[in-house]
Recover the amino acids of this structure.
């Protein structure tokens, strides 16, 4: 079972938000402008870190530049939260240099997803501080995403049952557009997970999370079906799927829906690895590379009810 969680302070009007790019580069100046505007619209004060506009190939600056910004944002008490501008690639290049001790002395909310999965899981593993798998700052935030964001980050009580996107919506769900139960039942456990590719990349490192007793949530983007199959096989071979309390499968956006010959589909592959675990499994949840996504607090207890296909956050995520 995971360590006891440590809650960061809640966000309030006027909170100073450090905007960082620890992975891929900001592709357009408008991305930075949108991120600053979103912070202000939510009542926060944006502070763009010095190297956030850098680019070094597919990275947002050299490793030293990105790490300098990230550690300053994580440890400087003038910032109330750290919000990643985008995902991309490169967080695993610098994660070993993160100042975990400095962050733990004055924890704050850290928000992002995709490649930022590496940072979120490392912070949880090294410090026990709850972090937040949610929208990156440069993307638009629809009303549903904003409600989920504020429910876990601005209130010092449990968020309760998260809301599904009302139809019609912009979420591409498997199995003819429905959120479905792959296996029924109810499970309670800490929410742990993120991007499948990045979670798999942490296996064998000190940052790989202990998933025993957890509700594992997963999402991914732009992956061939055979690669999804191989990554899930790796998780199973490594024992990472043993002892799960439940599984909450989000969106596999722009991924192959079936093999070339049509013999296997994404739903078949997911069923192969999760259908026989004997735990509740729900798939098609609004988690991942979509606009109307949930913000999930990593390490906080939740109830997954596969019979009615709901996810309820049971404990506060911020103090």
């Amino acid at each position: 079972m995971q360590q006891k969680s440590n809650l960061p302070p809640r966000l309030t009007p006027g909170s100073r938000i450090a905007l960082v790019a620890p992975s891929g580069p900001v592709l357009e100046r408008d991305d930075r402008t949108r991120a600053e505007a979103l912070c202000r619209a939510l009542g926060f004060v944006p502070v763009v870190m010095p190297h956030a506009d850098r680019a070094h190939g597919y990275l947002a600056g050299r490793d030293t530049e990105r790490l300098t910004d990230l550690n300053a944002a994580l440890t400087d008490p003038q910032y109330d939260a750290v919000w990643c501008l985008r995902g991309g690639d490169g967080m695993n290049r610098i994660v070993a240099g993160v100042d975990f001790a400095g962050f733990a002395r004055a924890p704050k909310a850290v928000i992002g997803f995709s490649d930022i999965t590496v940072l979120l899981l490392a912070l949880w593993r090294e410090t026990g501080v709850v972090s937040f798998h949610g929208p990156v700052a440069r993307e638009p935030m629809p009303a549903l995403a904003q409600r989920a964001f504020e429910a876990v980050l601005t209130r010092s009580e449990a968020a309760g049952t998260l809301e599904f996107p009302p139809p019609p919506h912009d979420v591409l769900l498997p199995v003819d557009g429905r959120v479905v139960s792959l296996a029924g039942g109810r499970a309670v456990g800490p929410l742990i997970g993120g991007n499948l590719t990045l979670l798999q990349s942490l296996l064998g490192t000190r940052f790989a999370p202990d998933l025993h007793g957890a509700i594992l949530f997963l999402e991914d983007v732009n992956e061939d079906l055979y690669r999804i199959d191989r990554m899930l096989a790796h998780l199973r071979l490594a024992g990472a799927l043993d002892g799960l309390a439940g599984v909450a499968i989000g969106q596999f956006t722009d991924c192959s829906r079936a093999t070339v010959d049509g013999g296997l589909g994404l739903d078949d592959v997911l069923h192969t690895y999760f259908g026989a675990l004997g735990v509740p499994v729900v798939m098609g949840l609004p988690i991942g590379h979509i606009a109307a996504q949930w913000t999930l607090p990593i390490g906080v207890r939740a109830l997954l009810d596969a019979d009615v296909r709901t996810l309820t956050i049971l404990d506060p995520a911020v103090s």
